[in-house]
Design goal:
Shape: globular
CATH class of the largest domain: Alpha Beta
Number of domains: 3
Strand content: 5-15%
Strand order of the largest sheet: 2-1-3-4-5
Largest sheet: 5 strands, parallel
Radius of gyration: 24 Å
Structural class: alpha/beta
Number of strands: 5
Length: 246
């Protein structure tokens, strides 16, 4: 993945095992990423709040605080709750892997770490995070601006309904015209409700359009399309299948 595709992203590694940390550093620095390393939970919280990394790679077993508790605390803090967390574990127990996802992790890597797998997973989630951030910049969520949204919706509804109310009153003896006005009001409300896409749907729409554009611009090579998006080829194939673009 090219460095400019992830805008010099920052990854926080929380692990006290030097061998594994060295694998992560050597693999991810080649992608142009900045790597921050800490060994303990409290240090991780302080660093995450200060630097707001684009991703956290978290060992399930760390000194003073286990990875699950650290993940819970990061997800409970407004400053760090949106940062994707990938767990790292030497355990093959499904219960541990499921618990990691339940407390807020997005994925997990099994130790001993494989450099290509590390790069593929990190690249995929950094790309998704970049899309989410771009979407938030251009399409603020309704829940982030509830008062302005609802005031605007109320104002539009009242302004648009007023002519219909007058028409309905002036034609009160004509039932079909009253029903027409009421149907129009219901239609306007339905149209406004339709505009409220949830965040996940909006991200998928945005991502699908980026993929379509990349494929159209690189008709001779799917690999070039993947490179232009800054994601591994196998990730692109999965997304093509997901969005049924074949």
């Amino acid at each position: 993945m090219k460095a400019n595709n992830i805008e010099k992203g920052v990854v926080l590694v929380v692990d006290d095992q030097p061998e594994e940390v060295n694998v992560l550093i050597s693999s991810l620095q080649e992608c142009g990423l900045t790597i921050l390393v800490v060994q303990q939970g409290e240090q991780a919280i302080a660093l995450a709040e200060q630097f707001k990394p684009d991703m956290i790679l978290l060992n399930m077993l760390i000194p003073t605080m286990d990875g699950f508790e650290l993940c819970r605390r990061l997800k409970a803090h407004d400053v760090t709750q949106a940062i994707p967390i990938i767990f790292m574990t030497a355990s093959s127990e499904t219960v541990d892997q499921v618990k990691g996802l339940e407390v807020g992790g997005v994925d997990y890597l099994t130790k001993p770490l494989q450099p290509k797998e590390v790069v593929a997973r990190v690249t995929a989630y950094l790309t998704i995070r970049k899309l989410q951030q771009q979407l938030q910049e251009h399409h603020p969520l309704e829940e982030k601006q509830p008062e302005r949204f609802h005031q605007s919706r109320k104002r539009m509804t009242e302004e648009e309904q007023e002519p219909l109310r007058r028409e309905s009153m002036s034609l009160s003896s004509t039932i079909p015209d009253k029903e027409l006005a009421e149907r129009r009001i219901r239609q306007m409300r339905a149209e406004q409700d339709q505009e409220k896409l949830n965040f996940h749907e909006a991200v998928e729409v945005y991502e699908k359009q980026l993929i379509v554009n990349a494929l159209e611009q690189n008709l001779d090579s799917t690999a070039k399309a993947a490179a232009s998006l800054g994601i591994p080829l196998r990730t692109l194939y999965r997304k093509i299948e997901k969005y049924r673009l074949l």
